[in-house]
Amino acid sequence: MSTGFFPVERVAFEGPDSTNPLAFRHYNPDEMVMGKRLEDQLRFAVAYWHSFAYEGLDPFGGATFQRPWFPNDSMDNARLKADVAFEMFTALGVPFYCFHDADIRPDLGSFTASKKAYEEIIDIFAAKQDETGVCLLWGTANLFSHRRWMAGASTNPDPEVFAYAGATIKTCLDATHRLGGQNYVLWGGREGYETLLNTDLAREDQQMGRMLNMVVEYKHKIGFTGQIMVEPKPQEPSKHQYDFDVATVYGFLKRHGLEDEVTLNIEQGHAILAGHSFEHEIALAQALGVFGSIDMNRNDYQSGWDTDQFPNNVPEVALAYYHILKGGGFGQGGTNFDARIRRQSLDAEDLLIAHIGAMDTCARGLKSAAAMLEDGTLPGYVDERYSGWNSDYYQSVLAGKVSLDEIAAKVENEGIEPEPRSGKQEYLENLVNRFV
Length: 436
Hints:
The chain is of the alpha/beta class. It folds into 2 domains: 12-375, Alpha-Beta Barrel (TIM Barrel), CATH 3.20.20; 394-435, no CATH class. The protein is built from 16 helices and 14 strands. It has helices spanning 38-42, 48-53, 75-92, 101-104, 111-132, 159-178, 201-222, 246-255, 268-273, 278-288, 314-326, 348-375, 377-385, 392-398, 404-414, 425-435, and strands at residues 12-13, 23-24, 32-33, 36-37, 44-47, 96-100, 135-140, 183-186, 192-193, 227-230, 240-241, 262-267, 291-295, 335-337. It has an 8-stranded parallel beta barrel with strand order 5-6-7-8-10-12-13-14, surrounded by 5 helices. Strands 1-2 form a two-stranded parallel ribbon. The chain has a two-stranded antiparallel sheet with strand order 3-4. Helix 3 (75-92) runs parallel beside helix 5 and helix 11 packs across helix 12 (348-375). The radius of gyration is 24 Å and the shape is globular. 41% of the residues are buried. It is found in: Cytoplasm. The active site is at 100, 103.
C-alpha cells in the first residue's frame, strides 16, 4: 500500500520538448547507446543517506525538513522510511540503491541491540527487493558520525575502537552479501588526523592496512563476489585524510598488497576538493587498473567545501563518462547520486525533481561521451600523438631491453634532433564542444 508521500507513482519519459518537471526529457532507459540500454550503461543508484536520513542540517543551522519518519529513534520510523524509500526507487525506475547501516536503523545504545534492529530492516529490504526488482549497488558502514569515531575507526589509538569498527564492517558486509549487493565501500571519514602533535602516522597506516586486509580476507571467506572499494577524499571532516585522492589510495593499496583486491569509488566533489577534475581521477584509476564506481554530485565552486549538490553541468559529466566508456564501462559499479537537495527545498516533489534532473544530465553526458568515442576523432588524435612508441625499437625500450647508454648512443649516432609538435589543446576543446 502506498504511503502517499510522493505526488506520482512513476516518472515517465516524455522527451526533450516536455515541460513537465516530474518527467524525464533525456533519460529513456531503453534507448540503445554503444550496444547497451541506457539504463545498463548508467546503472543509477539512489543514496539512502542524503535522500532519507538528511534532515536539512548545515554547520550553522538545525534541521529544516519535516519527514514523517524523523527522528531516527524507533523501528516504526525506520520501517516507514524503508516504505517511502522503495516507493521513490520505483517511481524513478532506478535499478539500484546504496546505504550505510546508520541510515536505515536507529541507534539503540549497544552493538547487539543496534545489530538486531539493523538485521530486521535488512529482512524488510530483502522482501522489498524481491517485490520491486530494485537491487543493492553497494552497502557500507557509517564509521564517522558517532562520537566513538572522533579519532578514527581503523586508525584509532584505542584498539577497542578498532575492534568495534571491525565488528561493524563484518555486520554490514554480511548484510550486503545477503542482499546480493554488487559492491562494498569503505569511506574513511575520520581516517586521518587533526594535528600531528598527537598522531603516529606509521602506526595508523599499519592499522588501516590491516583492517582492509581483514575485510578482503573475510570477503573471500564468505564467498562475496562484489568489489571491495575505497572512496578517496582529501579532507573534511578530518584536516588530512589518508585516502586523499586516487594516486594516494593506490600507493596505500600497493604498500599493503591490495592493488589486485580493491578498487575505488570516485566522487566528483571529492576530486575537486583534492585539486583535481573528476575526469582526471577516473582516468587515473582506469590507467592504474583500480576503477570501480562513481558517486555523482557537484560542489559549489564558490563555497570551497563538499556541498554534495546534484549534477547539472553536462560538459563536466560528459568528460567523466567519456573515460568510463573508454575504459569499458562500469562492470559491477554504477552512478550513485551521493547528492542532497538544498535545505530550503522542503517538498517531497523536490526529492524527485532533483533526481530527475540529475538523471537527465547524466543521460545527456553519457550520450555525448558515446558520440565522441564513436566519432573517433578525439581518441584517434591521442593514439596518433603517441604512435612513435609503437615502433619495435621503442617497444623494446619500454620492455627494459635498452639501457641508458644504448639510447644515448642512438641519439648521437643518428643525429636525432626532435622538434616539438603542437598539442592542439584548443582544437580538442572545440572538438568536445561539438558533442556537448
